[in-house]
Amino acid sequence: MVQVYFHCSNSLGLLVDRQGTSVDDLSDARAHAIGLVRSLVRQPSAEDWRTWILHASDEDGDEIFVLPFAAVLGRPN
């Protein structure tokens, strides 16, 4: 297992993951990232989440992958 940190940002804000999450592999990390994005956008908010990006990084702070929220949300109706 490895500890992965899932930080989220846009041009105006930053959500820092200070605890991280233990994952088995890259596939597990990506599944967790998608779940996190879905969880954030389900919360009542006026935020336009399509402009946000999730940055997954390892314990050394090296970026593993990025996941634009728009890739999970799709196009607005």
Describe, in plain words, how this protein is organized in 3D.
- The protein is an alpha+beta fold and 77 residues long.
- It has helices at residues 26-42, 69-73, and strands at residues 2-9, 14-15, 21-23, 53-57, 63-68.
- Strands 1, 2, 3, 4 and 5 form a five-stranded antiparallel β-sheet that branches.
- The longest helix is centred in the middle third of the chain and has 17 residues, at 26-42.
- The protein is globular and about 35 Å long.
- The model has no long low-confidence stretch (mean pLDDT 92).
Give structural attributes.
77 residues, alpha+beta, 5 strands, globular
What's the SSE blueprint?
Elements: E1 2-9, E2 14-15, E3 21-23, H1 26-42, E4 53-57, E5 63-68, H2 69-73
Antiparallel strand pairs: 1-2, 1-3, 1-4, 4-5
Distance between the termini: 39 Å
Unreliable stretches (pLDDT < 50, length at least 5) are none
The radius of gyration computed from the alpha-carbon positions, rounded to a whole number of angstroms, is 12 Å
Sheet/helix structural class: alpha+beta
Number of helical regions: 2
Strand content: 25-35%
CA-based shape: globular
Largest sheet: 5 strands, antiparallel
- Provide the residue-averaged pLDDT: 92
